[in-house]
Amino acid sequence: MRRAFLAILRRDLALAARAGGGGELALVFFLTIVVLVPFALGPDLNLLSRIGPAILWLGALLSVLIGLDRLFQADEEDGSLDLLRASPLPLEGAVLAKGLAHWVTTGLPLALSAPLLGLLVALPGEGVLPLVATLLVGTPALSFIGAAGAAVAASLRRGGLIVPVLVAPLTIPVLIFGVSAANAALGGTVPFRTPFLILCGLSLAAVAMGTLAAAAALRQTD
């Protein structure tokens, strides 16, 4: 089962690299949001610095939503999903591998690019590492919540329009505590550790529950 898990993980990573439209598209969309928002807000650097973590987190959330509909739909169309259902690896393991691959190709690059994009929103130096830390531990929750939504829409026509509607409301707690932790690192009455640990807990819960929910949804479409 370990070999099957690693095979699915390597396959999805290879497909993402070959297609060139997953993580790269998310990064471009992330950059576009972070560049456009300062133009809309105007030249007030104090305001921009204050809401910088919220801009970066919102950009990361919207960027992760791009391409989620293809997480399982492509496998449904070419018959790979039937092979995953029939394999000795439990469907939960296959979902875990695909969700991990999605995070590695989408969420991880977004988190690592945050220090550079933080310059565009006048993010103070002391807030860069905490922001990266919140994105590193928070974006897995976005990927696995998205996996559950993508599994529900896998067999639906125009499922790409449904996935963001299903997923976005469920990601609000992650967004709230991600921004709260990043802001706490810049000063405030709440210590950084409190919202950061809650964010870690949300990610762990999302990985577990998202994997189970996605596997259950895929079995229903069998």
Give a written overview of the molecule:
- With 222 residues, this protein is mainly α.
- Helix content is 80%, strand content 0%.
- It contains ten helices and no strands.
- Helix 2 packs antiparallel against helix 3, helix 3 runs antiparallel to helix 6 and helix 9 runs antiparallel to helix 10.
- The longest helix has 28 residues, at 91-118.
- The chain is elongated.
- The protein starts with a helix and ends with a helix.
- 45% of the residues are buried.
Question: Can you describe this structure in just a few lines?
Answer:
With 222 residues, the protein is mainly alpha-helical. The chain has helices at 2-19, 23-41, 45-65, 70-78, 80-86, 91-118, 128-152, 159-167, 172-184, 193-220. Helix 7 runs parallel beside helix 10 (193-220).
Note the main attributes of this structure.
single chain, 222 residues, mainly alpha, elongated
Describe the protein's topology.
Blueprint: H1 2-19, H2 23-41, H3 45-65, H4 70-78, H5 80-86, H6 91-118, H7 128-152, H8 159-167, H9 172-184, H10 193-220
Which descriptor suits the 3D outline? Answer: elongated
- How many runs of DSSP E, i.e. beta strands? 0
Helix content: over 70%
Mean pLDDT: 87
Please give the oligomerization state of what you see. Answer: single chain
Q: Report the sheet-strand fraction.
A: under 5%
Order of helices and strands: HHHHHHHHHH
Helix count equals 10
Q: Could you tell me how far the N terminus lies from the C terminus, measured between alpha carbons in angstroms?
A: 21 Å
Structural class, judged by helices and strands? mainly alpha
Name the poorly predicted regions. Answer: none
Radius of gyration based on Cα positions? 18 Å
Biggest β-sheet, characterized? none
